[in-house]
Amino acid sequence: MDTLTFKGELKEDGNEDKLVPKIEALAGCTIVYVSAIGGSAAARLIRKRVTPIKAKSEEEEIAEVLNKLVLTLQGNPPPWLRKALQPPVHDFDDLETG
């Protein structure tokens, strides 16, 4: 497990440029748990096929969250989770032309 540190101002100030390195760092993730997320950041993650999930509280332990996720996956996951875990569907827009 890695810990990532981002430099610069991290306040909720509407500076969309600060999102770029954070979103790039999540490449390859399918689900990310967050304590808070703005609409713009959520939309950008979803476009990258990363599903943000708001944690119930900041005190909730990561191990507890992961255990609940595993139990959900072993049971009957909700439709949004099944969709998030599906491999991407490629269409003609994904192909390079030339």
Description:
This protein is mostly helical and 98 residues long. The chain has one domain: Nucleotidyltransferase, domain 5 (2-Layer Sandwich), CATH 3.30.420. Helices cover 37% and strands 8% of the residues. The protein has a two-stranded parallel ribbon. β1 (31-34), α2 (39-47) and β2 (51-54) form a beta-alpha-beta unit. The radius of gyration is 16 Å and the shape is globular. The model has no long low-confidence stretch (mean pLDDT 81).
How large is the radius of gyration? 16 Å
User: Counting H and I runs of at least 4 residues, what is the number of helices?
Assistant: 4
What is the end-to-end distance?
40 Å
What is the CATH domain class? Alpha Beta
Report the mean per-residue pLDDT as an integer: 81
**In which range does the helix fraction lie?**
25-40%
CATH architecture: 2-Layer Sandwich
What order do the SSEs take from the amino end to the carboxyl end, as H and E? HEHEHH
The total domain count is 1
What is the number of beta strands?
2
Strand order of the largest sheet: 1-2
User: At the fourth CATH level, what is the homologous superfamily?
Assistant: Dinitrogenase iron-molybdenum cofactor biosynthesis domain
Largest sheet: 2 strands, parallel
The CATH topology annotation reads as Nucleotidyltransferase, domain 5
**What structural category characterises the helix and strand content?**
mainly alpha
